[in-house]
Specification:
By secondary structure, the protein is an alpha+beta fold. Helices cover 39% and strands 16% of the residues. It contains four helices and five strands; from the N terminus they run H-H-E-E-E-H-E-E-H. It has a five-stranded antiparallel sheet with strand order 1-2-3-5-4, with helices on both faces. The termini are far apart. Bound molecules: zinc ion. Zinc ion (ZN) binds next to helix 2.
Length: 159
């Protein structure tokens, strides 16, 4: 198994963790990295991405377990993941994706109280150390640029 090495994640590990939920916070404010706010689901950029284009898709309701999702919400959430993948494919042309849920701290959940899917685009050779080094310095710029590239597509999104 290859480990994706992302040194800029140290900013997250060392940052003060606030009490409020980042997802609920993004829904209530004009959060600048939120791509989509629907009736039941939302999509935002991961501020501390493993790789450029790392998105998070979550239900609007603040809940932590899959069994708390209604059937309708479950369907909307999966549809949101599918549409997000479609947009990333068109805009960023990745070679593949890692998509998944981290349930519980032991599984690596940073925000375990609000369920969310990680959508991580992958490119051949993206574990290359030089690429990672090069991105350390420019990742904040990448975030905003990527956001600006993706936002118009999410503005047209209907779930
Ligand atoms: Zn929440």
């Amino acid at each position: 198994m290859k480990t994706m090495w992302a040194p800029w994640r140290m900013d997250y590990i060392l940052a003060d963790k606030k009490d409020e939920c980042v997802f609920c916070d993004a829904l209530s404010k004009n959060e600048d990295l939120t791509l989509f706010k629907g009736n039941d689901t939302m999509v935002m950029m991961n501020k501390f991405p493993y790789i450029n284009g790392h998105l998070l898709a979550a239900p609007v309701r603040h809940l932590s377990a899959l069994e708390q999702l209604g059937k309708h919400e479950m369907g909307e959430l999966l549809a949101t993941v599918e549409r997000s993948v479609d947009i990333l494919k068109r805009v960023m042309r990745p070679d593949g994706f890692n998509i998944g849920l981290n349930l519980g701290k032991v599984a690596g959940a940073g925000v375990e109280e609000h369920l969310h899917f990680h959508i991580v685009p992958r490119w051949f050779g993206d574990t290359n150390a030089l690429t990672v080094f090069a991105e350390v310095r420019v990742i904040p710029e990448h975030l905003k640029t990527t956001y600006d590239n993706l936002k118009p597509h999410f503005d047209n999104l209907t779930i």
